[in-house]
From TrEMBL:
Signal peptide: none annotated. Pfam families: YjbR. The keyword DNA-binding applies. GO terms for molecular function: DNA binding. Keywords: DNA-binding. This is MmcQ/YjbR family DNA-binding protein.
Length: 117
């Protein structure tokens, strides 16, 4: 994703993806957290609250966000029940949602973001 960076503030077991890092070095806002351990992986994604409710109700691989705001985050289990196309759409949604809330000076260029669509 344009302008995204990966870091490990919670240890080597969880990759955190952020966007909107400031010139002063402060980290950007999280849009995805990915488990790097365990037999079955998972990813936490930030989504619109209505989408959280819908996905939790309709997909067995989607649950309210583990250790996150249950209203705004979901945990997606990366098992055979999760469709790759849907997962890609959810990651892009999470990224776009976070980018839209960033101050204009910290947003990636509109051209780079538009290429995602």
């Amino acid at each position: 994703m344009p302008g995204a960076v990966e870091d490990y503030p919670f240890g080597e077991e969880t990759a955190v993806f952020r966007v909107g890092s400031a010139p002063d070095g402060s980290p950007g806002r999280m849009f995805a957290l990915v488990s790097l351990t365990g037999a079955i992986g998972w990813v936490n994604l930030k989504l619109d609250p209505a989408l959280v409710t819908e996905l939790v109700a309709t997909h067995r691989s989607v649950a309210p966000g583990w250790h996150m705001s249950k209203r705004h985050w979901v945990t997606v289990t990366l098992d055979a029940g999760m469709d790759d196309v849907l997962l890609t759409e959810l990651v892009e949604h999470s990224y776009a949602l976070v980018v839209a809330k960033l101050p204009a000076r910290l947003r990636p260029s509109q051209a780079a973001v538009a290429e995602l669509g």
